[in-house]
């Protein structure tokens, strides 16, 4: 290990166990507002194998709400995010799938589900949820965010109960769907749960933070 590597990770060494992290591959499904921030945070803490799955391309509004750059416009989101990861640390192995998630995809031990719809979450959970060791789902609407984590059989059963029919999902104004600061906070909570799992600590099954009401509920 070089001095440069030691210097980079030494301040988080008691919070993120590097030995266990080195054995984990992470799959981020959906690299929009929350997913892009999750991917960048995973790279920053030293995750060495990151897989990105998303079919979409970067549009102008994604600069404001998702943190993409003007030079990313028109690129596949997975490729733009992969480039940002490589600029942060070119030793990270980044795999990109510029398509919707399909059951044939080989997933990592840790999955971060950051898609837009309940129906997509449900489909991904049915095909991949039982094949990973750690699952984290990030949801956001305006200044309300919810993070659900699965790390054991009980939390898996409870998570499945949150996959309600798509027509029951709250639909907000298209101008109040989210902000970069909300996405960053949601991503931080997801990576925090990942860090707890790496340390062998209990993970909160359901965290909901309402910035407007200044309320935090944890189960």
In words, what does this structure look like?
The chain has 219 residues and is α/β, with parallel strands linked by helices. It has helices at 3-9, 18-21, 33-45, 61-66, 77-88, 118-128, 153-160, 180-198; strands spanning 25-29, 49-53, 93-97, 110-113, 134-141, 144-150, 206-210, 215-218. Strand 1 (25-29), helix 3 (33-45) and strand 2 form a beta-alpha-beta unit. The N and C termini lie far apart (39 Å). Mean pLDDT is 92; it is low at 170-176.
Topology (SSEs and partners):
Blueprint: H1 3-9, H2 18-21, E1 25-29, H3 33-45, E2 49-53, H4 61-66, H5 77-88, E3 93-97, E4 110-113, H6 118-128, E5 134-141, E6 144-150, H7 153-160, H8 180-198, E7 206-210, E8 215-218
Parallel strand pairs: 1-2, 1-4, 2-3, 4-5
Antiparallel strand pairs: 5-6, 6-7, 7-8
One letter per element, helices H and strands E, the order comes to: HHEHEHHEEHEEHHEE
Which stretches are poorly predicted, pLDDT < 50 over at least 5 residues? Answer: 170-176
Give the CA-CA distance, first to last residue: 39 Å
Radius of gyration from the alpha-carbon trace, in angstroms: 17 Å
Structural class: alpha/beta
**DSSP strand count:** 8
Largest sheet: 8 strands, mixed
Count of helical segments? 8
Coarse morphology: globular
Query: How much of the polypeptide forms β-strand, as a percent range?
Result: 15-25%
The portion of residues assigned to helices is: 25-40%
The whole-number mean of residue pLDDT values reads 92
Biggest sheet strand order reads 3-2-1-4-5-6-7-8
């Amino acid at each position: 290990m070089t001095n440069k590597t030691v210097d980079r990770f030494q301040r988080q060494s008691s919070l993120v166990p590097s030995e266990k992290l080195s054995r984990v591959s992470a799959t981020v499904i959906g690299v929009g507002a929350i997913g892009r921030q999750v991917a960048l945070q995973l790279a920053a803490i030293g995750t060495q194998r990151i897989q990105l799955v998303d079919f979409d391309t970067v549009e102008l509004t994604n600069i404001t709400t998702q943190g993409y750059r003007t030079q990313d416009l028109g690129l596949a989101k997975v490729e733009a995010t992969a480039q940002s990861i490589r600029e942060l640390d070119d030793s990270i192995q980044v795999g990109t799938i510029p398509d919707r998630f399909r059951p044939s995809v080989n997933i990592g031990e840790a999955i971060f589900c950051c898609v837009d719809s309940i129906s997509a979450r449900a489909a991904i959970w049915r095909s991949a949820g039982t094949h990973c060791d750690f699952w984290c789902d990030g949801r956001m609407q305006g200044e309300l965010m919810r993070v659900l984590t699965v790390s054991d059989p009980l939390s898996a059963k409870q998570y499945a109960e949150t996959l309600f029919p798509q027509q029951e999902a709250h639909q907000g104004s298209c101008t109040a769907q989210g902000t970069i600061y909300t996405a960053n906070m949601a991503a931080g909570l997801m990576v925090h749960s990942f860090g707890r799992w790496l340390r062998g600590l209990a993970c909160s099954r359901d965290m909901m933070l309402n910035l407007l009401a200044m309320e935090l509920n944890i189960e």
